[in-house]
Specification:
The chain is mainly beta. About 0% of the residues lie in helices and about 50% in strands. The protein has 2 domains: about 210 residues, Jelly Rolls (Sandwich), CATH 2.60.120.380; about 110 residues, Sandwich (Jelly Rolls), CATH 2.60.120.380. It contains 1 helix and 21 strands. Strands 15, 16, 17, 18, 19, 20 and 21 form a 7-stranded mixed sheet that branches. A 5-stranded mixed sheet has the order 1-11-8-13-6, covered by helices on one side. It has a 5-stranded mixed sheet with strand order 5-7-12-9-10, with no helix packed on it. The protein is globular.
Length: about 325
């Protein structure tokens, strides 16, 4: 997997009035949902000839708060669990969607074969500005498996529906992310459904730009070690049977090249191996730095990697076998 990944897919969503949850109208009107432009990374509404669709926004008067809200993406991270989760009940009603607020974290469980939770519908009123849409999902048994969600913005008709997020992965959990640019006050109606025939739990939030996002997950907190560059870590690489067996490290990185040196030592000749993955900016974009395996006493590697953005990052370490060798590794700054 490439280390250079586009993590700022921008969405410009504009509407003058709230998007109705369901309607049989098919004519063109101000109630239509955003339509996809030729550039698939941008969503725009129909704009009068005298209105620019340029994504650059003049900074309003009002100080740093408004500058952050309307400025370029800021990847400010908070601790996992630092935002409370709403207890609002949600179902699949298109006529009466569950309501939530910007900055609020909501939750749900989608049961694909049920009559009332085979998908969920949420509605949020949102003011002009830039926002981080973040969602976490995991399987109901907390195990590793195929998982994924699709989040759509519903329009006046099904032809107007637009996908905002859609990802799938074989993992213990999955964080999804999109950067939203809202150009006019509107109400978004969001439909959430699974991409696999299994029960999915999820949490969801739309966080204003300039506000810290709990990371690398909203609520599924694990012990995370603080890592400093140029310091050698010595650990036992335990058998990765559960999510908690993975090793997590948080490190602050610049957007420059770093070197990761890894070595394993086993007391006996055995199958040994490891993976190192880099996750940014909120723990969502995942790229493998290295994955090595051998039947030997010793295994080592040296790899160069460069973060997509400067700032906090997480390194997730996994064991490729059931042996438990001793491991040392160092991230060296330039």
């Amino acid at each position: 997997m490439s280390l250079s990944m586009d993590i700022k897919r921008l969405f410009a969503i504009a509407a003058v009035v709230a998007l109705p949850a369901c309607s049989s109208s098919s004519d063109d009107s101000d109630n239509d949902a955003p339509v996809v432009a030729d550039n698939p990374t941008t969503i725009i509404d129909e704009v009068p000839d005298n209105t620019s669709t340029d994504t650059e926004t003049e900074t309003p008067a009002g100080g740093d708060t408004l500058t952050a809200l309307f400025g370029p993406a800021q990847y400010l991270v908070g601790e996992c669990g630092s935002l409370p989760v709403s207890t609002t009940t949600v179902n699949n009603s298109l006529d009466a969607p569950a309501q939530f607020n910007v900055g609020e974290v909501v939750q749900g469980q989608i049961v694909p074969n049920s009559t009332d939770s085979n998908f969920h519908v949420w509605q949020v009123a949102i003011e002009p500005g830039n926002y981080h849409l973040v969602a976490d999902t995991w399987l109901v048994d907390d195990g590793k498996g195929a998982m994924g969600l699709k989040i759509e913005s519903l329009g006046a008709t099904s032809a107007d529906d637009e996908q905002l997020v859609g990802e799938s992965e074989f993992a213990y959990d999955l964080r999804m992310y999109e950067y939203l640019e809202i150009q006019a006050a509107t109400t978004l109606t969001l439909k959430i459904e699974t991409l696999h025939d299994s029960i999915h739990n999820y949490t969801l939030g739309i966080i204003p730009n300039g506000t810290a996002v709990p990371s690398p997950t909203f609520t599924r907190c694990l012990p995370i070690n603080v890592l400093s560059t140029d310091s050698t870590q010595s650990v036992t690489l335990v058998d990765t049977v559960t999510r908690a067996d993975q090793l997590w490290y948080r490190v602050d990185l610049e957007k420059v090249e770093y070197v990761l040196d890894v070595s394993l030592r086993s007391a006996e000749k055995d199958a040994i191996g490891y993976t190192f993955e880099l996750l940014q900016p909120f723990g969502n974009d995942e790229s493998q730095i290295v994955g090595e395996s051998a039947f030997d006493f010793i295994l080592s590697s040296s790899d160069v990697f460069e973060p997509d953005v400067a700032g906090p990052a997480w390194i997730r370490v996994g064991n490729l076998h059931d042996s438990e060798p001793q491991m040392e590794f160092t991230v060296t700054a330039p």
